[in-house]
Amino acid sequence: MGRCTHNLKILHFWELFTQVSYKAEYLKRDGGSSSLYKVRLEGNQLSGNISEDFGIYLNLNYIDLSDYNFYGELSPRWGKRKNLTSLKMSNNNISRGIPLALVEATQLSLLDLSSNHLVGEIPTKFDSLVSLFDLKLNDNQLSGNIPPELGGLPNLVTLNLAANKLSGSIPQELGDCMQLLNLSLSNNRHGENIPLELGQLHGLESLDFGDNLLSSKIPEQFGALQRLKTLNLSHNELDGFLPSSFDSMLALSSVDISNNQMEGPLPHIRAFQEAPFESLRGLPTSWGS
Description:
This protein has 1 helix and 22 strands. It is mostly beta strands. Strands 1-3-5-7-9-11-13-15-17-19-21 form an 11-stranded parallel sheet, with no helix packed on it. An 11-stranded parallel sheet has the order 2-4-6-8-10-12-14-16-18-20-22, with no helix packed on it.
C-alpha cells in the first residue's frame, strides 16, 4: 500500500509502492511542495516527459526514478537543488546532454544516469562535486574525452563510464582518486597507453578496460594493486610481456586478457594458472595449453 496525496504542500516523504500507472504530469500537480525532500517510486509504471518535473521541489535531497519510461531531457534546474545528495534516473529514455548546471548541486554524493540515451560530452566541472562517491554514466552515447577533472573527486568509490562512445587516452589524473574501488571504462574507444598512475589505486577491487583500443604494455605498477579481484583487459591491442609484479596479486580471482598481442609466461598465481581458455583466447597457444 502506498502513500500519495493530491495536496503536496505539507508532504515530506512521498512513497508509491503499489502497481499503479501515472503520467509524469501528476508529479508537478498543485504547484509542488516546498517541504518535499525524498521521493521513492519503485514498483510502479510511471511514464512521461521528465524535462521539468521535480524541478519545482526546492528541498529534494533524494530521488530515485530508475527503471521507468521517462523521456525528455535533464533540466538545468536540477543544479539548483542545493540539498540534493542522490539522483538516480537509470534505465529510462532520457536524451540530449548532461546539463552543465548539474555540477552546481554540490551536495551530490550519488549520480546514476546509466542506461539512457544521453549524448555529448561529460561536463569538465564535475570536480566541484567533491562529495560524489558513486558516478554511473554507463550505457549511453556520450562522446569525447574523459575529463581529467574527474581526478579531483577525492571521495569517488565507483566510476562507471562503460558502453559509450568515449575516446582519447585514459587520463592519468584518475590515479588521484585514492578511494576508488570499482573502475569501468569498457566498450569505448580509448587508445594509447594505460596510465602507470593507476597503480596508485591501492584499494581498487575491480578494473574493466575491455573492448577498447589500448596499446603498448601493461604498466609494471599494476602489481601494486594488491586488493584487485577482477581484471578485464580483453579485446585491446596490448603487447609485450605481462608484468612480473603480477605474481604478488594474490587477491586476483578473475582475469580476462584475451584478444591482445601479449606474450611470455603467465604469472604464477591462481587467477592466471586456472583461467578458462576463453580468458586467454587469441594469445600465444602455449598460454592456453
